[in-house]
Please model this.
Amino acid sequence: MESKGRKFLKNPFVLTVIAIILGFLVAMVVLAAAGFPPLKSVGILIKSMVGKPKDIAAVVVKSTPIIFTGLGVAFAIKTGLFNIGAEGQYMMGCVAAVAAGAVLDLPAPLEILAVILAAVLASALYGGIVGVLKAKIGIHEVITSIMLNWIALYFNNWFTNTRLYHKPATIGTYPIHESAYTMVLYHWKKSEAGRAVLKSNDFLKQVLGRNDINMGFAVAVIAAIFVTWLLTRTKKGFELRSVGSNIDAARYTGINVSKNIIDSMMISGALCGLGAAFYITGQSPHLLNTLSATENVGFNGLSVAFIAQSSPIGCIFAGLLFGGLLYGGASLQSQVGAPTEIINIVIGVIVFLVALSVIIPQFLDKHVRKAAPKTETVGTDKKKGAGDAK
Amino acid sequence: MNMKKLVAGTLVSAMTLSLAACGASAPGTSTASKASEATSAAAPTEAASTAAGSTAAGVDSSVKVAMITDTGGINDQSFNQSAWEGLQKLTKDTGIKTNYIESKQASDFVNNFDTLIDNGNTLCWGIGFACYDAIKESAEENPDIHFAIVDNQNTDQIDNLTGVMFRAQEPSFMVGYVAAAVTKTNKVGFVGGISSPIIDQFEWGYKAGVAYANKELGKDVQVDAQYAESFSDAAKGKSIANKMFTDGADIVYHAAGGTGQGVIEAAKDADKFAIGVDRDQNYLAPENVLTSAMKNVNVAVEDLSKKFASGEKLDKDVEYGLSEDAVGISEDHHLYGDDIYKAALEIGEKIKAGEITPPATEEDYNTYISSLG
Model:
């Protein structure tokens, strides 16, 4: 019994779920303290995330870029690198996507391919800079990538105001050409026939008609599977992970360490770039704006990777949760009156607890040897908590 | 992340084309009833009769009004906040239900309008020209619901959309007069955000105000106008203003959002004057912000929502100016004294009476200058 309970608690998935539930509990305490009905508020939050087909579709759309950046960060962590530069790589991807999409005017499949390629290349190269600096000169990737985030932000603003791209009397660029749009059935949706069908079918209307549902999510799932395969089933993946887990051992066995660091950062960046490509091609307004602060898609990717404990597949679910909280948070505000900052508290607590949850198995191990009865109570208590939550 | 949000809250507001008046400045809000009494040029017909003032008579209780912010957020110390203050006042006065949703990024606009519609709102406000494309789309898909947007014209002339513009040239004219009257070096400056029709109103109104003062006071004050091509680059604002100050200007007016923060900073460093915009910015540098050209978004939002609730059909385009008490200059005038302040207010009266028509474009400005002789 005990050992089963302990095993259950050592499962990273279970730990994450507990952390998420605790995150909501803390949010409820905060809500109650601020004078809002806690149960009702969380109810509304969840309902506005999954209540209607439209909401689910919106959550999927909103989470897509975050899943990609989460994947990028998770990939880097698996190879021993902390890619805090996901934000900058994502932004460079967005810039490149607009740079290509607003100028090139090719037929649809080619145009989409060109835009995606531009974004992925730009982001991969931008991540590659960090990799080269780390591999060749030994500068820590956290320092360089934080600086590169700022460079990306100001590059975005400079680019937005260049004569070729800046749309007069706005704070943004021209949008990309419609042929690059990756929304599902976009042209059909806008056509007479499409409008008629959407009018008569409420489900389709909610999912398709009122959302920028796009190909990004499907690509994100494929990317997650690809990353898992690459890391666990290929020689390259083995090398990357070896460099991550013990750089000296890897070098001793003849693995080209610096090449693998650069490759890892480039792949991580490329994943962020995919997110950028599908954000620009798949979601309105399909353009860049002058920004005074980053939009945090990359930084949210860090949280997603943490919540997923760097599991690529886990990033899909963590990303959906994250996107859902961001989307549902707006309704929490409009229906209960609670400030959207509550959502940030929920997310913060979850990330914090997931980070903490690594301690629990260690804690259990330690106490198994020293005081078996004590562990038992801890174990069953915790298990009860988890069971209740289920 | 929270710190980032804070930074965003204070700075993102900057990128919005125009910051709004601070609702805390009492005159704007307390004279709202006056605003609806005054006959607006754009809605000349029943404006007076619907001046409900403090009573809720004739207000349809099924009306629900809500707004979406632009990316500045609800506490932007600027026009989002001001608009929400207008709606809160509406609720207080009439009992109409009001609400808001914050937009975190531009891709949220469409979804947020959707949520407002789902929640049964009958009048939906979009604050800031950035959400025009989204509001246009929503308005076309929901012909039964009325929409209104601040700082953008109803460019596509959609039936159920109202574009709300402010005659920013009017307060700009007044601060132009103040600047020309106060300057000792006979040189004043103007720093614009991104050149656009909206910022043109500020520039040409200001220049005309200076020209008017030149004639009235027998001075020869020159205006140096420059654009930062950004609403958020305080450093650039500061360097432009610094250059103007070293070139001999002693007063610089800005219509540049967050870029303007740098202008005010430069004035503080050089111990010269800056003129604030959209709300009373004196608190940023009490000894250096001479005056501010204010734009009270709350007045417009409240007034139009009230009209809508009393069953009036809103026009496609509405303009707010001095006559509606939706713009003006800040009351605080401890840096330049009563006489000039009074003269500026008199000019305001003349503008209301139609004796002076401040120009909003370069073309109008040239006509105006030739009419001055």
